[in-house]
DNA sequence: ATCCTCCCCTAC
DNA sequence: TAAGGTAGGGGAGGAT
């Protein structure tokens, strides 16, 4: 079955498209069933049509086959009036509530019926017994995969790699922000000075020769960070072999479709290369054994990864990244402790603020537990020796965080880093210039930063395993072997030379969101929904840093044809083929809809089978900051809205009218005199809600602004502080309130903005992140109050208010506050029904359309609300 | 020469 | 069961 879909001109035709698609697919099903009529084995499921929701056993594909062969019908989409049964093994509560009125049956109903050769009573297989107040799931809760709407956030909440990555960014930004504050007082330096005065003679650490003109770089690295932070609250485990992991050491369950042996062999084959030539080379040079992390794992060993292990565990050969099953074989007494993300954040924050506030701003953040600092100023002002600084600083960090760290000191980046390796655990090491040559000779090539598995192996095939051996190769040899840049840095680094500068100034070059875990989709709907969520995530991250991206890159992991259907690791990606494809826009954006459109085009062009997907990543490159020129961000946003980027890529059909995505056009005429000026005092818009009702001041301001352009719909830019209802401000969180106040203040003098009212009955929700965030935090009751006032007092609905309400409701739904949204829609319906006005009814349908779209995206179901005014 | 895309590698 | 993310550097090879 092809998934090529016609261009749909954005999303406004989504509903119609869905209908068409349903019919098409069902037609195909019937045709297929007819074609395969010689395979029909029975009519057990005559009259039954099923829709499979979520992950099931047997799989949806299997169930489809069973239905086809036995007289039943399989629906790719849930069709409330046609689908007779929904098949599911588990449903999240939100989904459950929505689908409550339908027959939701466990897949065993199908398999048992098939086994017995007759249709069994589905009532014995209901997923839950409908007790009105508390639907109870009669099934053990199973792990979620990415087809569930809550998967993404749960995954991010539990992913150590995601945490590591986001924390690194967080602290790079913290350094940036702190440096801007221009602080001049460093109390730590004074403490160090005092300590030196009291202890120098006793320490005998001072050495005149250490005071030279070289730059002094210090590298600080917490010792086995996750373990140390975890042991703060479990001191009884100190001194024991400890590892941090998700697993509890249980044996892994045997699952259908898993073949660890086959999967592991594929990895080994890819890693070794397939040709004999390589094998000969390896023997000739006595290559050190290369192990995959799957070594020593059998069918039931735990496949969880060890994120971090204590030095006691390392002594017996356990390493970070090793699988729990194997580690337990090496050390059956290994203590497994769970993650404690909050604690890691706390410790890391303490570490950073201590150094930044008390010692220096010349810090390069590497990660949550690792940083470089330029000691020049500290040493100059305190007259301390590098070792004294290291001892003192390490001691303070240990006191503050209760976690040990190690520090290395050297004249450059590389030497500082290598010194730390030597210092560990819980120590310090100053790699003095005089000993660098000797020191480097014996450094293992794999300890050089930048030399990993692949480069290390390649070097070992050349018979090289230490820096000393590497330094025998000429620059030319290295460059022809590894490329110009890689060759040059190998040449320098093995000699202890490194001219990289500490980078204090963090400027992101790309933003991405990847998930390569839990990706198991039954159909294109599920994968689309998930991709949409990833696009939203990317948009959020771009907005966080106030940047837009100009190139979209899609990264896919697809099950390799030879790989077992199910991965060895539970919900893992298994052995995959990787695909990367990028597409450039004419104008940078952060708009998730545009990103999705691009991504979707690529997906369709690649014709990916959604069931074979194992990983998805979306990346934005060529970042541009949203330059603030002139009046400010909002102004800039409005000018951005005038023309959203066109997609410039061969994949993209030229007929695509991307402008249709944005139906609310904004322009800013220089001296536009509106003909509707006389309406302004009668006209009510959402913004008027922010005004106190009897505020003379605001009336005056409105009058005085009559000379400017006043149009039916004001944008945020037009609101003045004095117009804002104080109770609205109170409803906002403090930080948001401050932001709003500042933005309003900075726009007091701005010209009014004209928002063109579209005649099109179709409305698309496109608001600025700035303004939608504001609405997001309006309390539910406040919003109900507004809606009542709006509908009751307003003659006709305005587009901008429709948009605001839609956006608000969509935000509620995506925040899983579906019930609140439901209540508001009911209220809106009642109000509009009373009003009995065509334009208002249209307004209701427009809003509902947006709501149902997001419902379909998130829950694959519509909200059950009134769809006609009888 | 320099840029772009599609990778791969590395680090935390 | 298990939570295999994310940013940056760079090489190969083709387009400009």
From TrEMBL:
Residues 285-296 have a biased composition (Basic and acidic residues). The keyword Nucleus applies. Deoxycytidyl transferase involved in DNA repair. Transfers a dCMP residue from dCTP to the 3'-end of a DNA primer in a template-dependent reaction. May assist in the first step in the bypass of abasic lesions by the insertion of a nucleotide opposite the lesion. Required for normal induction of mutations by physical and chemical agents. GO terms for cellular component: nucleus. Keywords: DNA damage, DNA repair, DNA synthesis, DNA-binding, Magnesium, Metal-binding, Nucleotidyltransferase, Nucleus, Transferase. It comes from Aphis gossypii. This is DNA repair protein REV1. Its main location: nucleus. The lineage of its organism: Eukaryota, Metazoa, Ecdysozoa, Arthropoda, Hexapoda. Residues 217-452 form the UmuC domain. Residues 275-296 are annotated as: Disordered.
């Amino acid at each position: 079955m092809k998934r090529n879909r016609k261009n749909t001109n954005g999303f406004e035709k989504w509903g119609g498209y869905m209908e068409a698609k349903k019919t098409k697919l069902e037609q195909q099903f019937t045709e297929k069933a007819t074609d395969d009529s010689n395979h029909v084995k029975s009519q057990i499921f005559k009259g039954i049509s099923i829709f499979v929701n979520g992950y099931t056993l047997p799989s949806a594909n299997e169930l489809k086959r069973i239905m086809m062969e036995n007289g039943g019908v399989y629906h790719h989409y849930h069709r409330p009036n046609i689908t007779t049964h929904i098949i599911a093994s588990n449903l999240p509560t939100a989904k459950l509530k929505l689908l409550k009125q339908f027959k939701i049956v466990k897949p065993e109903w199908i398999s048992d019926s098939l086994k017995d050769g007759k249709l069994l009573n589905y009532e014995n297989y209901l997923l839950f017994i409908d007790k009105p107040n508390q639907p109870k799931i009669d099934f053990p809760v199973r792990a979620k995969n990415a087809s569930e709407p809550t998967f993404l956030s749960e995954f991010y909440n539990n992913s150590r790699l995601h945490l590591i990555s986001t924390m690194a960014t967080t602290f790079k930004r913290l350094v940036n922000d702190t440096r801007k504050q221009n602080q001049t007082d460093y109390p730590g330096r004074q403490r160090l000075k005092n300590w030196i005065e009291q202890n120098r003679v006793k320490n005998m650490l001072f050495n005149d020769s250490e005071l030279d003109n070289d730059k002094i770089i210090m590298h600080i690295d917490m010792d086995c960070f996750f373990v140390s932070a975890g042991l703060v609250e479990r001191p009884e485990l100190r001194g024991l072999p400890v590892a941090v992991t998700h697993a509890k050491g249980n044996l892994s369950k045997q699952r259908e479709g898993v073949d660890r042996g086959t999967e592991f062999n594929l990895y080994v084959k890819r890693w070794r290369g397939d040709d004999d030539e390589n094998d000969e080379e390896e023997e000739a040079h006595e290559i050190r054994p290369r192990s995959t992390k799957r070594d020593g794992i059998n069918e039931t060993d735990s496949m969880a990864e060890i994120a971090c292990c204590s030095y006691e565990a390392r002594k017996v050969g356990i390493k970070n990244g090793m699988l729990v099953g194997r580690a337990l074989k090496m050390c059956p007494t290994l203590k497994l402790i769970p993650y404690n993300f909050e604690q890691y954040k706390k410790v890391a924050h303490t570490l950073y603020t201590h150094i930044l506030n008390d010692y220096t701003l010349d810090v390069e953040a590497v990660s949550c537990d690792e940083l470089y600092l330029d000691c020049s100023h500290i040493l100059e002002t305190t007259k301390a020796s590098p070792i004294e600084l290291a001892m003192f600083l390490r001691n303070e960090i240990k006191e503050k965080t209760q976690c040990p760290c190690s520090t290395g000191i050297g004249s450059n980046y590389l030497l500082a880093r290598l010194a730390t390796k030597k210092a560990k655990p819980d120590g310090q090491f100053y790699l003095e210039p005089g000993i660098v040559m000797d020191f480097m000779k014996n450094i293992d090539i794999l300890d050089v930063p930048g030399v990993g598995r692949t480069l290390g192996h390649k070097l070992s095939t050349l018979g090289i395993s230490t820096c000393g051996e590497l330094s025998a190769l000429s620059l030319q040899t290295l460059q022809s072997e590894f490329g110009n840049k890689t060759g040059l840095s190998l040449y320098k680094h093995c000699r202890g030379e490194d001219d990289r500068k500490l980078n204090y100034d963090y400027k992101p070059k790309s933003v991405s969101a990847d998930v390569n875990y839990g990706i198991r989709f039954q159909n294109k709907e599920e994968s689309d929904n998930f991709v949409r969520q990833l696009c939203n995530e990317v948009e959020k991250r771009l907005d966080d840093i106030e940047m837009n991206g100009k190139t979209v890159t899609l990264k896919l992991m697809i099950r390799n044809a030879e790989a077992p259907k199910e991965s060895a690791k539970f919900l893992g990606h298994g052995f995959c083929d990787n695909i990367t494809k990028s597409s450039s826009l004419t104008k940078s954006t952060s708009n998730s809809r545009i990103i999705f459109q691009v991504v979707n085009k690529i997906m369709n062009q690649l014709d990916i089978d959604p069931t074979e997907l194992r990983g998805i990543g979306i990346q934005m490159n060529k970042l541009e900051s949203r330059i603030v020129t002139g009046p400010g961000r909002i102004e800039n946003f409005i000018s951005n809205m005038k023309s959203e980027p066109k997609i410039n890529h061969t994949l993209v059909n030229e007929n695509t009218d991307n402008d249709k995505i944005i139906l609310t056009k904004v322009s800013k005429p220089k001296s536009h005199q509106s003909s509707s000026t006389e309406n302004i005092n009668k006209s009510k818009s959402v913004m008027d809600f922010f005004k106190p009702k009897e505020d003379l001041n605001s009336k005056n301001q409105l009058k005085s602004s009559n000379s400017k352009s006043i149009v039916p719909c004001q944008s945020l830019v037009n609101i003045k502080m004095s117009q804002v209802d104080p109770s609205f401000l109170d409803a906002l969180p403090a930080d948001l309130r401050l932001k709003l106040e500042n933005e309003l203040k900075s726009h007091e003098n701005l010209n009014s903005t004209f928002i063109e009212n579209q005649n099109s009955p179709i409305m698309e929700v496109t608001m600025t992140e700035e303004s939608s965030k504001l609405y997001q935090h309006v309390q539910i009751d406040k919003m109900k109050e507004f809606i009542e006032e709006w509908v009751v007092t307003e003659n006709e609905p305005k587009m901008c208010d429709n948009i605001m309400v839609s956006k608000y409701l969509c935000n509620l739904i995506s925040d899983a506050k579906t019930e609140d949204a439901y209540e508001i829609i009911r209220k809106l319906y009642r109000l509009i029904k009373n009003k009995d006005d065509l334009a208002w009814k249209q307004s209701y349908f427009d809003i509902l359309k947006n709501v149902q779209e997001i419902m379909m995206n998130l829950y694959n179901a519509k909200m059950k609300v009134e769809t006609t005014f009888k």
